[in-house]
Specification:
The protein is α/β, with parallel strands linked by helices and 390 residues long. The chain folds into two domains: 217 residues, Type I PLP-dependent aspartate aminotransferase-like (Major domain) (Aspartate Aminotransferase, domain 2); 133 residues, Aspartate Aminotransferase, domain 1 (Alpha-Beta Complex). It has 14 helices and twelve strands. It has a seven-stranded mixed β-sheet with strand order 1-7-6-5-4-2-3, sandwiched between helices. Strand 5, helix 7 and strand 6 form a beta-alpha-beta unit. Helix 4 crosses helix 8. The radius of gyration is 21 Å and the shape is globular. The model has no long low-confidence stretch (mean pLDDT 96). Bound molecules: pyridoxal-5'-phosphate (PLP). The site of pyridoxal-5'-phosphate has 16 residues, from helix 4 and helix 5.
């Protein structure tokens, strides 16, 4: 692996496990549950972690190691853990770092299952949380309690595409000694690197833009050694390990992350501009669109706006359903970050477990539609959206 810090595109391609005796050019797949020892003494030393190396694929594997190493380079992190899903990663961050009596301050606009972990699962172990509203950062400090241990953020948020000032949040976390975690799934390290703004840890659902082709579920957490050691301990013994096959896919996918993200952004910008001017649309939300209320902030912390656009159709749920049913090329699915453009109605699907009030609070109205813009020709995407809008 190169020690030197290369440019992003180069690190995404050239971070690679050393070649085996076969002199293969592309990293092979290591489908093995365990690894062998030279001797009884070697086995003892490996288990004592006196010698670095692979013992058992729940702990580490060359494919997961390559994926983690690459993500660390791309996010500017010291250490990482790969997980079987994005949610295993979110749970790993929370359960690996928090204990009974601790409190989490989280941005309100969170991925649906992250909300379920905070509101339904962690309270069983005496871990409480408070939501902070994106629109009123001046009130966040008052929400910090003596037992607050963590600041958990998602920016841009799903599906509302609201932003949080990462640098400002970093100062807040530092002033109150909070572990600062950012779910960077929507932006990817190509567009936004939270650690540069003070985050301790960055969490990803690799299922989305990292795989980028809608094939596999997985996740990864990267960040400072201090906190990652605890998460690694938790993961090694509770077992949310990423499969070597999925790690192999993700590491290869990362080679094309920069070119894919550029095209996702190109297509999303064109679509956001089209929707912003359409007579059947109340509003469009896209971080780099001229109408986004946080456009200045978007430009400060992201290089481009990402691959997700959302908009509110005039006529509420009835018209939203009609639009979704009329799309012909665009896929009806709940995923995002795929080569294929996907349309989702958050209120009735991904965010249906929230109460009406909770949805209102994060702007998930009945007419809100999320489009995860793919890599097809933008004219074909617009063509389909235009005919479906009627
Ligand atoms: C999809 C997603 C997750 C969960 O990831 P899975 O891989 O589906 O478990 C977490 N956070 C965000 C922002 C997501 O979009």
């Amino acid at each position: 692996m190169p020690d030197k810090k290369n440019h992003f595109e180069t690190d995404a391609i050239r971070t690679q496990t050393p070649t085996t005796g076969e002199r293969e050019h592309s990293t092979p797949l290591y489908m093995t549950s365990s690894f062998t020892f030279d001797s009884a003494e070697h086995a003892r030393a490996m288990f004592a972690r006196e010698i670095e190396g692979n013992v058992y694929s729940r702990y580490s594997n060359p494919n997961t190691d390559e994926f983690i190493e690459k993500m660390c380079r791309l996010e500017g992190a010291e250490m990482g853990v790969a997980t079987a899903s994005g949610m295993a990663g979110v749970f790993g961050c929370l359960a690996g770092l928090l204990g009974q009596g601790d409190h989490v301050l989280a941005s309100r606009s969170l991925f649906g299952s992250s909300h379920q972990i905070l509101s339904q699962i962690l309270p069983r172990w005496g871990i409480s949380f408070t939501y902070a509203d994106v629109e009123s950062p001046e009130k966040w400090e008052e929400l910090i309690k003596p037992n607050t241990k963590m600041l958990f953020l998602e920016t841009p948020s799903n599906p509302g595409l609201d932003l949080i000032d990462l640098k400002w949040a970093g100062k807040l976390a530092k002033a109150h000694d909070l572990i600062y975690i950012v779910d960077n799934c929507f932006a990817t390290p190509y567009l936004q690197r939270p650690i540069e703004f003070g985050a301790d840890l960055v969490q990803h659902s690799a299922t989305k833009f990292i795989d980028g082709q809608g094939r596999a579920i997985g996740g990864v957490i990267v960040g400072s050694e201090k906190h990652m050691e605890d998460i690694q301990f938790f993961a090694r013994h509770t077992g949310p390990a990423l499969s070597p096959f999925n790690a192999w896919l993700f590491s290869k996918s990362l080679e094309t992350l920069p070119v894919r993200m550029e095209r996702h952004c190109d297509n999303a910008e064109v679509l956001a501009n089209f929707l912003g001017d359409h007579k059947h649309v109340n509003f469009v939300k896209y971080p780099f669109h001229k109408d986004h209320p946080q456009l200045e902030l978007a430009k400060k912390q992201m290089t481009r706006g990402g691959g997700v656009v959302c908009f509110e159709i005039k006529g509420g749920y009835e018209k939203a359903k009609l639009f979704i049913d009329k799309t012909s090329m665009v896929s009806r699915s709940a995923n995002l970050g795929d080569t294929r453009t996907i349309v989702t109605h958050p209120a009735s699907t991904t965010h249906s477990k929230l109460t009406e009030e909770e949805r209102q609070a994060v702007g998930i109205t009945p007419g809100l539609i999320r489009i995860a813009v793919g890599l097809e020709n933008s004219k074909d995407i617009i063509g389909d959206v235009e005919q479906a809008l009627g």
